[in-house]
Amino acid sequence: MASINYPFPDPQNDAERAANRQAADDYQRQEEEGADFVDWEKEMGWR
User: Are 8 and 20 in contact (CB under 8 A)?
Assistant: First the structure.
């Protein structure tokens, strides 16, 4: 059975760990911004 590299593969060194942290932070920020935009659309009556 193959392992699933989700959300990121196991880091092999500090640079990969730092890159994974940055990617996770970017993803979280984008999710929050997207949720804020949907809330704003609902308040404006667009959804």
Answer: yes
Q: How far is CA 41 from the centre of its chain?
A: 21
Q: How is 1-47 classified by DSSP, letter by letter?
A: -PPP--SSPPP-SHHHHHHHHHHHHHHHHHHHHHHHHHHHHHHHT--
pTM: 0.61
- 7 vs 19, higher pLDDT: 19
Cβ neighbours of 13 (radius 10 Å)? 8
Tokens of 38: 């949907």
With a CB cutoff of 8 Å and minimum separation 6, the contacts of 8 are 20, 23, 24
